[in-house]
Amino acid sequence: MTSSRRVSPRARPARPGLWGGRLFFGPQRLMYAGPLAPTEPHAHPTFQVMVALGEPVRMRDGDSHEADCPWAVIPPDVEHTVVRGALDVVLLHVPAEGLAGRRLRMLGVGARAEDWLRAGEWLRTCGVARLPVRWAEAEAWTRALLSALQAEVGAPPPTHPAVKKLLRLLPESLDGDVRLSALAPQVGLSVGRLSHLFRAEAGFALRPYILWLRLQRAAEHLQRGASLTEAAHAAGFTDSAHLNHSFRRTLGLNPSEIAGVVQWVGPPSG
């Protein structure tokens, strides 16, 4: 049974426990499987697909409505908070700019907790019963989740060529000038046109997407054993405090809550 209620926006969740699960991290893949702890309010430029195998997760939206969610689909750039976690949870981040993300946009998921719960009801048929342990199992989970969600969705419209070019350029441009004024000439558009077009096609502004790329780069260094300060500098953040702030704003927790705590799982080599 699920429920929804409105609470005071001043209510703050307790933050006990650790994220002691597995983090499947590699090119175009970010999945966490394990115990889910409460978070601070946050938003990220990805779809988040969530399945709880036992007790539901209590989620709060930006208007302070809450719902108990055995599953959920949270759209990009939408504030959400984990109020009460659970022991056996899978979180899959789906890049909104990719084909799978563009198909998920066609579901038209709203910004309220009850919308996320309703969209996630498709996941009851995904057929997965235990947490993934190996990379291949995480990939099978991903296929099952996306297949369940996209069963009734048609083909999305094609991405504008200038946006496709920009998406190819950005990961290799983080060490340089990534202001709109520098990027627009590289894709043959004016600053205003590129800003409008990117938001229209991706569903969020360019700046949070660049921040997301920097956080991914920082995570790559943390995965290799770098300190928070080393990871921050490598990803273009001023210092570890800057990285902490950006991490909390985007993911609702400090990087120290996963670095050295989660078990990192990468794709097979070779």
Automatic annotation (TrEMBL):
Keyword annotations from UniProtKB, A to Z: DNA-binding, Transcription, Transcription regulation
Any one GO molecular function term: sequence-specific DNA binding
Gene3D superfamilies registered for this protein in UniProt: Homeodomain-like
HTH araC/xylS-type domain sequence ranges: 164-261
Residue ranges that the Swiss-Prot or TrEMBL entry lists as coiled coil: none
SUPFAM superfamilies per record: Homeodomain-like (SSF46689)
Superkingdom, natural source: Bacteria
Pfam families in the cross-refs: HTH_18
Entry-linked InterPro entries: AraC_XylS_family_regulators, Homeodomain-like_sf, HTH_AraC, HTH_AraC-typ_CS
Protein name: AraC family transcriptional regulator
